[in-house]
Amino acid sequence: MSNKEVKAALKSARDAIRNKEYKEALKHCKAVLKQEKNNYNAWVFIGVAAAELEQPDQAKGAYKKAIELEPNQLLAWQGLANLYEKSNQTDVKGDLADVYQKLLELYESGDKQKWCDVCNKLVELYHQEKKYLEVAETWQKLIQIKQEEGAEKAELHELWKKMIQLLKDSTQNRDNKTEQSLLTAFEHAVNSADTVPGEDHQNLYKDFIQCLSKLPHETARLEKACNDMMALYPTVSYPLEVLCLHFIQSGTLSEEALHCFSRLLEMDASSGPGIIGFGIKCLQEKKYKEAVKSLTEGLQKTTQCPAAWHYLAEAQMKIHKHRDAVLSCNQALDALGTPEGPSLRWKNLILQLKAEALIKIADADAAEEAIKSLEQIVDASSDPVVLAIRGQAYLNKGLMDQASKISQELLLSHPDLAESHALEGFIHYSQKNYEQAERSFLNAIERKAETAEYHQYLGLTYWFMSDETKKDKGKALTQFLKAAKLDSYLGSVFCYLGNYYRDIAGDRSRARGCYKKAFELDGTDEESGTAAVDLSMELGDMGTALSILNEVTEKASTGTAKWAWLHRGLYYLRNGQPSQAVADLQAALRADPKDSNCWESLGEAYLSRGSYSTALKSFRKASELNPELVYSVYRAAAVEQILGKYENAIATYQQILKKTEDYVPALKG
After folding, report:
1. Distance linking the first and last C-alpha atoms of the chain
2. Phi, psi dihedral angles at 337 (to 5 degrees)
3. Between helices 491-499 and 474-486, what is the axis angle to 10°?
4. CA atoms of 248 and 260, how far apart (whole Å)
5. What confidence score (pLDDT) does residue 151 get?
6. Average pLDDT for residues 649-668, to the nearest whole number?
7. I need a labelling partner for 277 at 20 to 30 A (CA). Which of 431, 488, 506, 512 fits?
């Protein structure tokens, strides 16, 4: 076959392909290859025909042979790209990417439009495969070529925006390079927008800031983006909210942060981050109740802020709402999810605070939970303060040996740490070794004089110490007063001050004030509530007594606050209001149905009301629960007498006289 015949055969093959006569085309090509086995065009035409006849392997082989012969010729590469694009097999995607790469190389010096088309296809392919770094690098190359061609600003803006779309969902498996490419795309996009300010531009800025807020190491860039957006959109609160949340999470509250909080509240008084920021400011200024109020309100609007939950728990601890603090710590841990980096520091802080709150609750179950919290702290064993907390948890749980072991270790390794001596003091105090406890608490105070709890426990140590200090409780008083001055929310210390003024100094008025304060601080402190009511009544101040009782009974749920119902019932009974007395005494019995004295008082209230049958039942119930209550047995007989049940009454009187011969009311009866 001459050169002329080869050309004719190739022309026939091309015409056959054009006419979709693919088998015919193959015949012509094979004839050519018999003569010239390295004919590039013949191999390319075989590739085209075989592909159309759905013989992909033969087509692929033909294209590859052509490429082998002339690696820098376009036709075979284009054919191979078409073949792979039509293939349903997933394993060809890697090969297709290589083909596109080669086509880019071949088009680069020539047809720029085709280069861009292939580039788009390659990026799409990488995107499907989640190869985000390759997406970023290829797309940036496309933008570079467009810039070299002198593309319009608007076109470039759209390209940067497309790059953001391509890389936006790469969060899960994004490496640092891809991350930086995404941020670069955002920066170019916000700076190349045409209509500024405008709605699209504003949304783009929001997306940029949202993206930065998820990257803990990009704080400087985040602050800059927020400030830049605020300058462009002074009435939009979003960048300020993100900035405030950033300051809250960072845990350091600078002047700039406080300025942001107040600026945000001026712009939007109902903004969650703004209200949280104000709460943190109150916490810093030691306005703990306002802090709790603001942080609680802010967290209802912005729930997923672990640092804010931690600040709330801190404020709740300051006012000794320990159970509330535990709940806030749990919310903080939920909001953290699976922490890493800076979040891990928050997790450790939250777990430690939770353990401290649980220890203040002071029961064995809470101690067990505290130990579990401490076990989750990373590097807990190297932190002496955490160890001291663990020692207290063991002590609360009654595990004296473990607590003592930690105490001894801490005194050896950290003799200058107040917590080491305090733990030793708590152990001695619980064992009534008051002299050793005194020494330990004095050592703790020497190292940390501002801790109210140490002064409180030293005061208690003096209170119970020896006969000398029992006679002269002045040393205890001094420590209680110091504790109260250092921590005006420490309810228990005001209760002890009340005990001192009532039992030692005989100053009922001052004692009443201390008990009242203790009860206001801790509504569950029945001892202080009862003492405040009793002293108010002794001092003839019924108004104060009743206002305390009314406040407790209004809040009380069924079956609780027995002491308040009982006190108010007795008050009504003494003041000739039997119906109210009945209602209150019944409420007291719902809390404690086995209180014989309460049944006796209820009997009196029914009797005063003229309800003789129910009075009789109440007196009988009282004497059933406590047969020693002679008065209840006598009152039952007296009621039987009123009801005309004389035989029963006589029998009951005789029963009393058998036990107590000279019980005058029974003799009279």
Report:
1. 149
2. 65, -135
3. 150
4. 11
5. 84
6. 62
7. 488
Q: Which residues contact 349 (CB under 8 A, 6 or more apart)?
A: 310
> Strand (E) positions, 265-418?
none
- Worst-scoring range by mean pLDDT, 51-60, 318-327, 400-409, 612-621? 612-621
What does the radius of gyration of the chain's CA atoms come to, in whole angstroms?
43
At 335, give phi and psi (nearest 5°).
-70, -25
Find out whether 120 and 112 touch, Cβ atoms under 8 Å.
no
Cα separation, 78 vs 408, in Å, equals 80
Q: Residues 303, 327: contact at Cβ < 8 Å?
A: no
The tokens for 465 are: 């110490």
d(CA 45, CA 60): 12
> Which pLDDT value is given to residue 172?
62
Of 628, 620, 627, 625, which is closest to residue 645 (Cα–Cα)?
Answer: 620
In this prediction, residue 217 carries a pLDDT of 82
Taking residues 426-454, report their average pLDDT: 96
Tell me how far apart the 2 most distant CA atoms of the chain are, in Å.
Answer: 153
Q: Looking at beta carbons, which pairs linking 37-46 to residues 24 or more positions away fall under 8 Å?
A: 38/69, 39/6, 39/10, 40/66, 40/69, 40/70, 40/73, 40/75, 40/76, 41/10, 41/75, 42/10, 42/13, 43/69, 43/76, 44/75, 44/76, 44/79, 45/10, 45/13, 45/14, 45/17
Residues ≥6 apart with Cβ < 8 Å to 423 = 388, 391, 392, 395, 403, 406, 407, 410
Q: How confident is the model at residue 46 (pLDDT cuts 50, 70, 90)?
A: very high
What the block records as the tokens of 648 is: 């029963």
Q: How far apart are CA 97 and CA 137, in angstroms?
A: 14
Distance CA 432, CA 426 (A): 10
Q: Compute the average pLDDT of residues 386-413.
A: 95
Chain-centroid distance of CA 175 in Å reads 28
pTM over cut 0.70:
yes
| DSSP state letter for 140 | H
Tokens linked to 74? 């376009």
Rounded CA-CA distance 648/641 in Å is: 8
Burial readout 641-650 (b: 16 or more C-beta within 10 A, e: otherwise): beeeeeebbe
Using an 8 Å Cβ cutoff, are 184 and 163 in contact? no
d(Cα 611, Cα 632) in Å, to the nearest integer? 16
Is there a cis peptide before residue 197, judged by omega within 30 degrees of 0?
yes
Those residues whose C-beta lies under 8 Å from the C-beta of residue 471, and which sit 6 or more positions away, are none
Q: What is the pLDDT of residues 203-221, one digit of tens each?
A: 999 999 999 888 878 889 9
Other CB atoms within a 10 A radius of the CB of residue 305 amount to 23
User: How many residues are present in the chain?
Assistant: 669
Provide the 8-state DSSP code for 92: G
3-state secondary structure 62-88: HHHHHHHHCCCCHHHHHHHHHHHHHCC
Q: Can you tell me the distance from the alpha carbon of 252 to that of 588, in angstroms, rounded to the nearest whole number? A: 51
Digit-coded pLDDT (tens) for 159-195? 999 999 988 876 666 678 888 999 999 999 988 888 7
> Does the pLDDT at position 107 exceed 60?
yes
Rounded CA separation 118/56 (Å): 22
Task: Give the position of tokens 């007594």.
Answer: 545
Cα 287 to Cα 365: distance, rounded to the nearest angstrom = 32
94, burial (CB in 10 Å: exposed 0-12, middle 13-18, buried 19+)? exposed
Cα–Cα distance measured from residue 387 to residue 470, given in angstroms and rounded to the nearest whole number: 35
Angle at 478 between CA 472 and CA 481, to 5 degrees: 130
